[in-house]
Amino acid sequence: MDASKLKGWNYIVYVLVKNNFESNKFSLAEIYEFEPYFKMVYPDNYHIKDKIRQTLQKLRDHDLLKFFGQGEYQLLEEREYEIKEEKCSEEVVYLLTNESIPGWVKIGRSNSVSRRLKELYNTSVPLPFILEDKIVVDNKENSFMLEKSIHSIIDTINPSVRKNTEAKRREFFKLTVDQGKMIFQLVTRITRVNVYSDMSLFN
């Protein structure tokens, strides 16, 4: 199976393994160490280890993972994206809110958050958008991976949040800011990308 077609837990665990283990080799004990990060996003899920193990089996069924026995695995090489990596000065996955749209967050990608904020502040909204969180990388391939990881996590929490809605096409999601930030933290941890904390970068 083409890894780029993975969704939900399958994609999340695939990205975790691909970005965190040397030679893509790992043990169940090693991947279970990520359980606390998943608990931040899934506080009511008391079977995260079981879900991870079940997902590993699905990746094996898709011929993306090899099992050696005694809890040892290796991710098989797979071209994940057809997107050609393009170096650029900055690619940002952002989390925005707007006081005039309570209960919703906007998640998207841009190579300039300050410009994006100006574009969004138009006659359709009475108040400007606020940057709540961001993940910064240096190429479009990584920003695409981050955005898809975020969408996959949202789908595992509540698929109705973004499926078959006009809000999905407009990058709006019915989440709290805290939920959005926890999802960003989880994605940052499993993808191992750099995060800039200096908000002045976007002024």
3D architecture notes:
InterPro entries: DRP_C, Phage_T5_Orf172_DNA-bd, WH-like_DNA-bd_sf. It comes from Hujiaoplasma nucleasis. This is Bacteriophage T5 Orf172 DNA-binding domain-containing protein. It holds the Pfam family DpnI_C. By secondary structure, this protein is α+β, with helices and mostly antiparallel strands. It folds into two domains: 73 residues, Winged helix-like DNA-binding domain superfamily/Winged helix DNA-binding domain (Arc Repressor Mutant, subunit A), CATH 1.10.10; 106 residues, no CATH class. 41% of the residues lie in helices and 20% in strands. The chain is built from eight helices and seven strands. The strands form two sheets. It has a four-stranded antiparallel sheet, sandwiched between helices. A three-stranded antiparallel sheet has the order 1-3-2. Strand 4 and strand 5 form a beta hairpin. Helix 1 crosses helix 4 and helix 1 packs across helix 6. The longest helix is centred in the C-terminal third of the chain and has 18 residues. The N and C termini lie far apart (43 Å). 29% of the residues are buried. The C terminus is likely disordered.
Main attributes of the structure:
7 strands, elongated, WH-like_DNA-bd_sf, Arc Repressor Mutant, subunit A, Phage_T5_Orf172_DNA-bd, single chain, four-stranded antiparallel sheet, DRP_C, 8 helices, Bacteriophage T5 Orf172 DNA-binding domain-containing protein, 203 residues, alpha+beta, three-stranded antiparallel sheet
